[in-house]
Amino acid sequence: MAVLNCDGEYGYLFMQELKLPPTHSTPEAMANYAKFGRRIHWVDSTSIPGAFQMNTSWWYKANREGILSRPDSQVGKPHQHEYPEILGFYGSDPYHPDDLGGEVEFWIDGEAHILTRSTMVFLPPNLPHCPLLVNRVDRPIFHFSVVMNNVYDWVRDGEKRICADEGAEKDAGR
After folding, report:
1. Whole-model pTM?
2. Is residue 2 part of a domain?
3. 20 to 30 Å CA-CA from 2: which of 42, 77, 96, 154?
């Protein structure tokens, strides 16, 4: 028997609507992101029981100045995770899939990488990374991140921060 979209016994395992954690769904956070991109999906164990965290976005404008001008920006300063992460950056030209269609600047432990080709990046646990800056967008760029944890959290300056289901970044007392 076929069911449509999210119907049926296993429909709860499908995500077709954006469900952001409260830390990313405040009016300010959403307005800041909308200046350069659009989130598609954000999944974690709070939206699908047992899931690890993954989020997807389309980027259509540069964000460098906006990110660097916000001292509270999560991706504007180095942070790390206690678990592995994979980041993906893909151009949107199906006839030239290796062409990113823009320029992304991504820092790993103080080393800047300028990306102009579609790229996946594996980050082992506890490897400092960021800033993550979109310097130029010629065509929309598809971005995703996958973290092997049930929610998205990070460590910066010795403090653990969590995308909490209570609504605000929480200091986990590290």
Report:
1. 0.87
2. no
3. 42
